[in-house]
């Protein structure tokens, strides 16, 4: 399984990325060292969408807080960049794709990242991973 993360990114051309206590959804809590991950610089944080592909070098679940009944699982991870995106893919390109049942990989990404616009780590289908690989 491949993963994607949408988060604040200080240096889009960095060779490594570190993300602390990131929210997970859609299977994102299963991310582990060795997994492929696509990095999106969050437009909410001034980013431009898809910027890199990499390999997870470490992933550590964050302990849940005591006394809080409903908590979204969080993970801290480090990623080694393996490629920089050559084409743009972000909210503006994905936003028109709202037929949630059309089976298209771009619609899957729009649903997982932009229907609820918070930053997060998500699991993605093989079809979505193949689609994203075309941007490198």
Structure description:
It is a single chain. The protein contains three helices and six strands, in the order E-E-E-E-E-H-H-E-H. It has helices spanning 91-94, 105-114, 126-133; strands at 2-7, 16-25, 36-41, 49-61, 74-84, 120-124. A six-stranded mixed beta barrel has the order 1-3-4-5-2-6. Strand 3 (36-41) and strand 4 (49-61) form a beta hairpin. Helix 2 (105-114) crosses helix 3 (126-133). The longest helix is centred in the C-terminal third of the chain and has 10 residues, at 105-114. The radius of gyration is 14 Å and the shape is globular. The relative contact order is 0.28.
Tags for this model:
16% helix, alpha/beta, 136 residues
Structural class: alpha/beta
Mean pLDDT: 95
Strand percent estimate: 35-45%
Order of helices and strands: EEEEEHHEH
> Given the structure, what is the number of helices?
3
Helix proportion? 10-25%
Question: What kind of oligomer do you see?
Answer: single chain
């Amino acid at each position: 399984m491949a993963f994607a993360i949408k988060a604040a990114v200080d240096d889009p051309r960095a060779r490594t990325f570190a993300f602390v206590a990131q929210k997970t959804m859609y299977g994102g809590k299963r991310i582990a060292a060795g997994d492929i991950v696509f990095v999106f610089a969050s437009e909410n944080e001034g980013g431009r969408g898809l910027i890199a592909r990499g390999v997870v070098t470490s992933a550590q679940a964050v302990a849940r807080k005591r006394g809080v009944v409903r908590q979204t699982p969080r993970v801290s991870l480090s990623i080694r960049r393996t490629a920089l995106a050559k084409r743009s893919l972000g909210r503006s390109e994905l936003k028109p794709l709202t037929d949630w049942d059309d089976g298209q990989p771009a619609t899957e990404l729009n649903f997982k990242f932009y229907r609820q616009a918070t930053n997060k780590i998500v699991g993605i289908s093989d079809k979505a991973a193949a689609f994203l690989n075309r941007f490198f």
